[in-house]
Design a protein that fits this description.
The protein is globular and about 65 Å long. It has helices at residues 6-9, 23-40, 67-74, 84-94, 111-119, 133-146, 162-168, 171-182, 184-189, 235-255, 280-294, and strands at residues 48-50, 99-101, 123-126, 150-160, 194-201, 208-218, 224-234, 260-261. Helix 2 crosses helix 4. By secondary structure, it is α/β, with parallel strands linked by helices. Strand 6 and strand 7 form a beta hairpin. It contains eleven helices and eight strands. The strands form two sheets. A four-stranded parallel β-sheet has the order 1-2-3-8, sandwiched between helices. A four-stranded mixed β-sheet has the order 5-4-6-7. The structure holds nicotinamide-adenine-dinucleotide (NAD).
Length: 295
């Protein structure tokens, strides 16, 4: 797998597949697979949703800044040019297929790829599905803000199993996820506070995920109080309906002629593209407004 990081590359179970020499050759192969999938299943519309393992954060490169610059670089034997999630995103957008990034990986998050989406008039959305602890955090934080209860610190410890947990046990891959989970509280309340998010792989948990959160806050006359919660979720059962809804919503957008980042889908993501809004209820209001207008 071209530029997916050491831990994900070690999972590859198809050594028989030929290696792409350039990013363009990898994109061409993904495009041909997608086109073949569409023909084989006789589909009118196809959406591409990234649910692959979380990559390490991509190294910023000057070639990412514009579509013209990236296109020139794609033909060079430069395996580090784009992370694998961006190769898939490029292929999807180039085929004019709506694209959703359900992971914290880079995907279509580079300026050159956003340009490609607008150029081809393709809708896209991301990043990182908001299914568990972060969903609860972004529903609770507005309550503290609206009741003028000042948050002092927010600590969240997460344990999870399955392959997602295994990949996230690599500190480089974990850093991408911690970043998207950790930023939301400060963004909602608008002032700095001490936050800490940890993620540990516990093999026996399989698809179950537990989060323990400790929230320290201050009320009237500076009285200090604590809220703690335990969230025990089944990863797949939480994610699957969101993935289905996202596919339906981006395909609807395509039929309606919408293109570029779909801001009304912010409530689905920990790190919504094109939006600084993290408050779950305000995000949901954007979706409701969109649905009202679409009718
Ligand atoms: N509740 C959730 O499940 C949830 C919520 C938010 C985000 N996510 C993100 O969604 C992704 C999938 O989660 P999961 O629990 O299904 O993980 P998983 O490990 O069970 O599945 C990921 C799959 O992607 C495959 N893969 C990795 N790199 C690939 C590549 N370059 N090309 C093709 N396949 C590749 C892996 O082999 C694996 O089968 C992860 O990035 C995770 O962080 C999941």
């Amino acid at each position: 797998m071209l530029n997916s990081g050491k831990t994900i590359a070690a999972l590859a179970d198809r050594p028989d597949l030929p290696r792409a020499d350039t990013p363009q050759a990898a994109i061409d192969r993904i495009e041909s697979d997608l086109a073949d999938f569409r023909t084989r299943h006789r589909l009118d519309q196809v959406a591409v949703i990234n649910v692959a393992s979380t990559e390490p954060a991509a190294e910023p490169r000057p070639e990412h800044a514009s579509l013209a610059g990236l296109r020139i670089a794609l033909g060079r034997a430069d395996a580090g040019l784009l992370p694998v999630s961006s190769l898939y995103a490029y292929a999807a957008l180039d085929l004019r297929l709506p694209y959703v990034n359900f992971t914290p990986s880079t995907g279509a998050g580079l300026p050159a790829l956003k340009e490609l989406a607008v150029w081809h008039q393709v809708p896209m959305a991301g990043s990182d599905g908001k299914t568990g602890e972060t969903l609860v955090k972004t529903a609770l934080a507005p309550m503290f803000a609206d009741r003028n209860l000042k948050l002092l610190s927010w600590v969240g410890h997460n344990i999870l199993g399955n392959r997602d947990g295994l990949v996230l046990s690599d500190p480089r891959n974990k850093a991408s996820k911690v970043h998207t989970k950790d930023q939301v509280i400060t963004r909602i309340v608008g002032y700095p506070l001490q936050t800490h998010t940890s993620i540990e792989y516990i093999e026996s948990l399989d698809d179950l995920k537990t989060a323990w959160d400790h929230i320290h806050f201050q009320g009237f006359l500076g009285v200090r109080m604590t809220l703690q919660f335990t969230w025990q979720g089944c990863d797949s059962a939480l994610a699957a309906p969101l993935v289905v809804d996202l596919a339906r919503l981006v395909l609807l957008s395509q039929r309606r002629g919408e293109a570029g980042v779909l801001k009304h889908l912010a409530c689905f993501f920990k790190s919504p593209m094109g939006s600084e809004e993290h408050d779950f209820f305000r995000q949901y209001a954007l979706l409701e407004e969109y649905v009202r207008q679409s009718r």
